[in-house]
Amino acid sequence: MASRVEKDNDKENVEVSGKKKRSGVMVIMMAAVGALVAGGLLMGIILYFVGIPGVMPKMKTTPPPQYELLELGERVVNLSDSGGMRYLRVKMVLEFKKNEKLSAEIKEKHAPVMEDVLHVLRSKNVEDIRPLDKEEKVKTEIINAVNARLKNGKVERIYFTDFLIQ
User: Fold this and answer.
1) Which of 47, 72, 131, 153 could bridge across to 92 with cysteines, CB 3.0–4.6 Å?
2) Mind spelling out the 3-state secondary structure of 45-87?
3) pLDDT tens sequence across 82-110
4) Phi/psi at 158 (nearest 5 deg)?
5) Inter-axis angle of helices 110-122 and 100-108, nearest 10
6) φ/ψ (deg, to 5) at 78
7) What is the CA radius of gyration of the chain?
8) What are 15-73's pLDDT values in tens digits?
9) Cα torsion through 141, 112, 86, 144, rounded to 10
């Protein structure tokens, strides 16, 4: 009986060792497949973010737009406060993209442009322009008024280089 138990144990060992051999091959194959998948993913990520040198076309870099400044000079404007005793002294500079046609148009229409600017400023009282955030609203109104008159481009910004309320 002892020999029969030993034979059964030997058969189990052979079967177990056979399974181990089969599962060892499966582990190696799964590891190889996993390595290939991981390598492919890694290569894809590298190519996505870095690219292939010499294969990708170079992107065109556009230079930043150049701007032109035009001084409108100093103006003194009565504000619309009650009593008419308050005034504003302001120096202004217009900024726009460099464009010969627009520059010539603004210089040609200097008087109507200044009239639009002065009209906006005369309609304001001290409370409309005193805090800084309200000053930005006034700038926006002036830019809109000037741009409504222009046909060859538009004014991007206006700067107050001198701003005195009295």
Assistant:
1) 72
2) HHHHHCCCCCCCCCCCCCCCCCEEEEEEEEEEEECCCCCCCCE
3) 777 888 899 999 999 998 998 899 889 98
4) -130, 140
5) 70
6) -75, 135
7) 40
8) 555 555 567 888 888 999 999 999 999 988 887 777 766 665 666 778 888 999 989 88
9) 0
Q: Kindly list the distances between the CA atom of residue 24 and the CA atoms of 5, 17, 21, 146, in Å, as whole numbers in the listed order.
A: 28, 10, 5, 82
d(CA 84, CA 53): 71
Locate 119 and state its tokens: 């009209």
Q: Indicate the burial class of 111 (C-beta count within 10 angstroms; 0-12, 13-18, 19 or more).
A: exposed
For residue 45, the number of C-alpha atoms closer than 13 Å in the C-beta half-sphere is 6
Report yes or no: 92 and 158 within 8 Å, Cβ to Cβ: yes
- Which tokens is 130 given? 């005193």
Number of alpha carbons in the 13 Å side-chain half-sphere of residue 10: 6
Return the H-helix or E-strand segment holding 159.
strand 155-165
Q: Element (H or E) spanning 1, and its range?
A: none
